[in-house]
């Protein structure tokens, strides 16, 4: 279980995504709008992914999902269209309490930095 002093992000009226930042400078998960399908996550550090390669990207967040739920890391169409970068569509088990990390793929001919 995560400590009770964690930050919380509202999902629905009675469901809450609990999370902790592993360091203070980590970005909070955010919803772009009240009707967003999920939360936007950001990397904890600057990363480079070599051309036609992959990298494991750390968000610096540990989460506790609402009971009966699982997490899904979904690709962002903007990244795919503009930079030819996609994620591994990762699934987070409901009982997972470690740091959230995302496999990112670079399908372009150039190293991608973000």
Automatic annotation (TrEMBL):
The family this protein is said to belong to = Belongs to the dUTPase family.
Q: What does the record list as GO biological process?
A: dUMP biosynthetic process; dUTP catabolic process
Q: In its UniProt entry, what is this protein called?
A: Deoxyuridine 5'-triphosphate nucleotidohydrolase
Q: Which reaction does it catalyse?
A: dUTP + H2O = dUMP + diphosphate + H(+)
**What Gene3D superfamilies does this protein map onto?**
2.70.40.10
Q: What organism does the UniProt record list as the source? A: Hypothenemus hampei
User: Its Gene Ontology molecular function terms?
Assistant: dUTP diphosphatase activity; magnesium ion binding
Named in its record, the pathway it takes part in is:
Pyrimidine metabolism; dUMP biosynthesis; dUMP from dCTP (dUTP route): step 2/2
Q: Which residues form the signal peptide?
A: none
């Amino acid at each position: 279980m995560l400590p009770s002093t964690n930050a919380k992000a509202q999902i629905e009226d009675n469901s809450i995504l609990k999370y902790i930042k592993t360091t203070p400078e980590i970005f909070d998960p955010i919803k772009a709008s009240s009707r967003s399908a999920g939360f936007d996550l950001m990397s904890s550090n600057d990363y480079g992914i070599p051309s036609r390669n992959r990298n494991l990207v750390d968000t610096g967040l540990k989460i506790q999902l609402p009971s009966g739920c699982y997490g899904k890391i979904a690709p962002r169409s903007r990244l795919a269209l503009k930079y030819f970068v996609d994620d591994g569509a990762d699934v987070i088990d409901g009982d997972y309490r470690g740091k959230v990390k995302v496999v990112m793929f670079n399908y372009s001919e150039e190293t991608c930095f973000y």
